[in-house]
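Entry 14. Ran structure prediction on the chain below.
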Amino acid sequence: MGTNSAQLTLSGIRFPLKGMEQEPVKVVLGISIPSIDPVFLGVVCVHVLFGLAAVIAGAVAMFSKKGRGRHSNLGTVYFWLLFAIFISMSTLSFMRWPENYHLFILGVLSFASACFGRAAVQWRWRQWPRLHLTAMGASYIFMLNSTLITARTCPCGRHCQRLHSGCCLPQSGYR
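Output, structure tokens:
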């Protein structure tokens, strides 16, 4: 049994838990990141900053008066921030594919929705306002859902419903 293998101890007897090997975890500002690789951590930092900016730009664009000006300018900012998030998300997903492939799928759906919504406006498709609203709204929802799923994923890479065998961090709050 290696030093990285997860174990369950009952009455002093240790039982190895297969498939639950823990990777080293880096805690940054109280947030557990399941890697100590400096490249991974750097990409995560950039990804989070772009994500926060996209959430803000998207929300302000949504609630702004529609048309030229603030709405379209911030919509463009949102689109290019989402493109940067897509690139960083792809990098992070490929670095930890078995744990993050589902986030890659959500990222592709988010960016594809934004591309569709942007194309509907640029090409003035039939019923373009409805198509634009639906696609950009879906893009924002996919982006937020991936954030919520990431927050629920414990360092072991699983979506844990409750704390088990020391796999999840106690501060995660899931039961």
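The helical segments are 38-63, 70-95, 97-122, 128-152. Will compare against last week's run tomorrow.
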